[in-house]
Design brief:
Layout lengths: L1 E5 L8 H14 L4 E5 L5 H5 L11 H7 L7 E2 L5 E4 L4 H11 L8 H8 L6 E5 L6 H9 L2 E6 L3 H4 L2 H12 L7 E9 L3 H12 L4 E8 L2 H8 L4 H4 L4 H13 L2
Parallel strand pairs: 1-5, 1-6, 2-4, 2-5, 6-7, 7-8
Antiparallel strand pairs: 3-4
Length: 249
């Protein structure tokens, strides 16, 4: 099972949209997908119609107990299962930080390893911070994708984030690749200049595929549907299909 974490310390850059789109498109290719909602806001749990404010048996349980099998829920989509999240993640993180009897950073790695034979891909949707749940996700991951918009607020701190990710993934016995994904792209002089800087000066690996700006992206969240299901023909959906081809997923 290949494990991909999507993360950025800036919100609103397309982490959840990208996670849901990739999961949906890979499932259409008959790949078995496990989505892990690692964000207490539970947005991707809502996308797949599995959010519950009262649920305690999701990624919160996986973080505390290092066990995933009992947390897996089926979705309405063939080939897609999910481990959900909600505000209970806050207390789970506190409990883990206070638990000095066992390692804190490798609980996802062990838990997901026990069910790895059941899936081809695990996609982890992370919050815009680096707490103990995100550290666990990064330690477990084979690959990290950083969705980024081409504006100053989104680019600010990108170097620091990648340095932090590299430090955390040193705890991972597997080599972990980090790549940037340009999202919400609109062709302007400013965006073109920012893209040139990313590709030529940042020292970071950037996907050739860019995800174009699309009104359908916002609309799909209102209907709790992955973007390629809501609007199969919009430019962004076609871009996500191209991303899968480029990534070799």
């Amino acid at each position: 099972m290949r494990i991909l974490s999507l993360i950025n310390l800036k919100g609103g850059v397309g982490k959840t949209t990208s996670t849901a789109a990739l999961a949906y498109l890979l499932a259409k290719e008959e790949k078995r997908i496990l989505v892990v909602d690692n964000d207490k806001q539970g947005n991707i749990s809502r996308t797949f119609s599995q959010f519950s404010i009262e649920d305690r048996n999701g990624s919160m349980h996986m973080l505390k107990e290092g066990e995933a099998k009992s947390c897996v829920k089926e979705t309405r989509y063939k080939n897609i299962d999910i481990i959900t999240c909600n505000l209970a993640m806050e207390s789970a993180e506190r409990d883990v930080l206070m638990d000095c009897t066992k390692k804190q950073h490798d609980r996802y790695q062990k838990a997901l390893g026990e069910i790895g034979q059941d899936y081809d891909y695990c996609l982890i949707d992370n919050p815009p911070d680096i707490g103990m749940n995100v550290i666990n996700a990064l330690v477990a991951s084979n690959e990290v994708v950083i969705p980024v918009k081409l504006d100053n607020w989104s680019l600010d701190g990108l170097g620091l984030l990648t340095d932090q990710i590299r430090q955390i993934t040193l705890l991972n016995p597997k080599e972990c690749q980090i790549r940037l994904l340009i999202t919400d792209y609109e062709r302007t002089k400013t965006a073109e200049a920012a893209e040139r800087w990313l590709r030529e000066k940042s020292g970071l690996s950037v996907f050739q595929t860019k995800i174009r700006h699309s009104k359908a992206t916002i609309d799909s969240t209102l209907y709790n549907k992955p973007l390629p299901e809501y609007s199969v023909r919009c430019g962004a959906s076609r871009d996500y299909k191209n991303l899968i081809l480029e990534y070799g997923l």
